[in-house]
């Protein structure tokens, strides 16, 4: 029996994968190092105890969207929630990308921007970040002017480099895409760690969308909640392409209840930023090049051995970090998530032992 053939443009595309192996210290996927507060878990279980499981969830997730909107000071019709911010990115590319259209990325950056673009048959045009991984407005204007992309992706803090873009870069990008009615998407998966946010720039008269996730600082990677804040007309377009009832009852409840714990979230941000500073200080004393970070991870490159070798030597000691060799221009680079003090000490001690 024959088998159907996948689309020609997908035949050679690998899936997006991050190793999931059993280790003592897992610092490779930028998760929160600690779970949500116990009060969150208890409140969620209380609500689920009375959930009518035989009924479909609220198709529009309106209570969750209202709660997110209140959190950011916007109406519910400027918010769409989904199963992680990746589903939001997919909806944006389904609505505004596709055959005959293109999306711009600036490498190295979050790989799923290009991955989902390919899956939606959207052409990809790539600009380049500077040697220090900052992004020049001139490069944005060059790419936009030459290719007129339907969607231009920015990512701040940038994954996997940790780079924070200056606030005026969003304005420069909006000005660059205005003459061909392009859309600017700012990925702020790590936005809570940044000193500024593009959320304050979102208005109904601007083609700007800002995506965020609960997976990091809300400590809910296992639940999968993401959202976008955007003009109401853009949200209406995205509603045309998301599947009906795509956000289940538990996910909606978890997203709403988490927003009761904003103070705890801010405290965790402060603690992780402090711990990030400690980790960078110790890394700077070792034989590695360390890149500045405005996120909950740090990118570094060993000077006297390959990144592949160092990654394996850490894994041999039951410590898992992210090997970034698959990203453009990141050969030999590794990325370590900020963990607990004990986890970070285990990583740092192992790294020091290996490099000596």
Tell me what the structure shows.
With about 350 residues, the chain is α/β, with parallel strands linked by helices. The protein folds into 2 domains: about 120 residues, Aspartate Aminotransferase, domain 1; about 210 residues, Aspartate Aminotransferase, domain 2, CATH 3.40.640. It is built from 11 helices and 12 strands. The strands form 2 sheets. Strands 2-8-7-6-5-3-4 form a 7-stranded mixed beta sheet, sandwiched between helices. It has a 5-stranded mixed beta sheet with strand order 1-11-12-10-9. Helix 6 links the parallel strand 5 and strand 6. The longest helix is centred in the C-terminal third of the chain and has 23 residues. The model has no long low-confidence stretch (mean pLDDT about 95).
Summarize the structure.
The chain is about 35% helix and about 15% strand. The chain is α/β, with parallel strands linked by helices and about 350 residues long.
Sheet-strand content, in percent, reads: 15-25%
CATH architecture of the largest domain: 3-Layer(aba) Sandwich
Protein structure class: alpha/beta
Radius of gyration: 21 Å
Ends: how far apart? 58 Å
Instruction: Name the CATH class of the largest domain.
Output: Alpha Beta
Q: For the report, how would you describe the main beta sheet?
A: 7 strands, mixed
The CATH H-level homologous superfamily of the largest domain? Type I PLP-dependent aspartate aminotransferase-like (Major domain)
What share of the residues lie within helices? 25-40%
User: What would the CATH topology of the largest domain be?
Assistant: Aspartate Aminotransferase, domain 2
Extract low-pLDDT stretches: none
- Mean pLDDT across the residues is 95
| Shape by Cα distribution | globular
The side-by-side strand order for the widest beta sheet comes to 2-8-7-6-5-3-4
